[in-house]
């Protein structure tokens, strides 16, 4: 904008518009081109605006609409949202702005096509798949999105009230004017490790027991309504159960009756989780940790028991051998011929042994005499 003598020259480029005011009052709108205006008293002012895909100040629009409603309707598109309404504004078919409730925006429409899609969020809090792609850049401010996996249960809460159970997949909800929350619960079996806790047995021996529990959520709605934290609640419950079970048993009973202890713990815990929508599939003692001096005493007891068992087995074998010898002696006493044959068998073994010794020494004289006596003993007494 330049001044020359009494004339004012204003140049408006393509994609621009100029609002010409005289003494602060709108006179007209200048289109693209070069404009020479007579301004004797320097009363004209031109404000140039970019009109391609841009907004116009809402306060200026309110003044312009009050003064020249025809001009405001020709140049601008005003978008205003209600209490339970959001609007998606597209410029030349491209979604650009997402307006939340009680918002006003004014757009130039002389060079850009303005499309407005209004959505009543009070009817359905869900965000449609088409709208979800349109509000990608503004999603975090007006909507909440979650993905429910195949092994999960998704519970939708609106203003703290359970509305429905969501199927696996992608879900998005409008958060304007309301509180939206989706609670996801894993339906797969989960392992809960109960770390060692020091406790006293019935015979006043301190020990620590480590357990493992496997739990599974079978009723998500009931679980969320009754238990704030499933794993923490189950952890404390198993702790109470093992303390009560160990306090009523001696150390020997704890170490020897592990199966009975596991069954008692499972019954105790299952009876208390039945109303919470959680199922305890397995629960058992993993480790029993004894103090150092107690562990040494237990090892000595085990060693003594094994030694006593070994001695018992040895005595049983000796008794069996003695019983076998007694049976043999009884047979020989009842049958003299059998005794005679036993003597000859023993003599033959002796001869073989002596013969080996004599042959090794190179002297066979003693062997011949011994063989002669052996022949005579074998000969019948009648001859």
From TrEMBL:
Keyword DNA repair: no
Any one GO CC term of the record: plasma membrane
Top-rank lineage group of the source organism: Bacteria
Main localisation: membrane
Record carries keyword Protease: yes
Protein location: Membrane
Coiled-coil ranges (or none): none
GO biological process: proteolysis
Band domain sequence ranges: 143-302
Membrane topology according to the record: Single-pass membrane protein
One Pfam family hit: Band_7
Alphabetical list of SUPFAM superfamilies matching this protein: Band 7/SPFH domain (SSF117892)
Keywords attached to this entry: Hydrolase, Protease
GO molecular function, one term: peptidase activity
Similarity remark: Belongs to the band 7/mec-2 family.
Protein name: Membrane protease subunit, stomatin/prohibitin
């Amino acid at each position: 904008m330049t001044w020359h003598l009494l004339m004012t020259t204003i140049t408006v480029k393509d994609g621009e518009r100029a609002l010409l005011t005289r003494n602060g009052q709108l006179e007209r709108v200048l289109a693209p081109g070069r404009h020479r205006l007579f301004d004797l008293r320097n009363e004209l002012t031109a404000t140039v605006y970019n009109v391609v895909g841009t907004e116009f100040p809402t306060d200026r629009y309110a003044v312009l609409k009050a003064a020249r409603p025809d001009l405001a309707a020709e140049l601008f598109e005003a978008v205003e949202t209600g209490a339970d309404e959001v609007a998606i504004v597209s410029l030349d078919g491209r979604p650009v702005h997402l307006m939340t409730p009680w918002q006003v925006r004014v757009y130039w429409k002389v060079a850009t096509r303005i499309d407005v899609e209004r959505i009543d969020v009070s009817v359905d809090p869900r965000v449609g798949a088409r709208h979800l792609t349109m509000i990608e850049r503004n999603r975090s401010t007006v909507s909440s999105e979650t993905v429910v996996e195949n092994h999960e249960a998704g519970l939708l809460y609106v203003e703290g009230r359970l509305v429905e159970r969501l199927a696996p997949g992608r879900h998005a909800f409008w958060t304007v004017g309301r509180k939206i929350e989706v609670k996801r619960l894993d339906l797969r079996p989960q392992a809960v490790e109960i770390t060692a806790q020091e406790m006293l047995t019935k015979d006043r021996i301190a020990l620590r027991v480590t357990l493992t529990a496997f739990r599974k959520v079978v009723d998500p709605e009931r679980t969320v309504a009754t238990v704030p934290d499933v794993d923490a609640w189950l952890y404390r419950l198993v702790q109470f159960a093992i303390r009560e079970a160990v306090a009523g048993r001696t150390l020997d009973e704890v170490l020897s009756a592990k199966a009975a202890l596991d069954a008692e713990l499972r019954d105790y815990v299952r009876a208390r989780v039945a109303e919470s929508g959680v199922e305890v599939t397995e629960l058992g003692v993993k480790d029993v940790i004894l103090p150092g001096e107690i562990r040494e005493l237990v090892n000595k007891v085990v060693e003594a028991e094994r030694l006593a068992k070994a001695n018992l087995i040895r005595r049983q074998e000796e008794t069996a051998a003695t019983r076998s010898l007694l049976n043999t002696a009884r047979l020989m006493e009842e049958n003299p011929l059998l005794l005679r044959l036993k003597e000859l068998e023993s003599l033959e073994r002796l001869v073989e042994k002596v013969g080996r010794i004599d042959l090794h020494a190179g002297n066979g004289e003693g062997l011949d005499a011994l063989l002669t006596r052996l022949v005579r003993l074998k000969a019948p007494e009648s001859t």
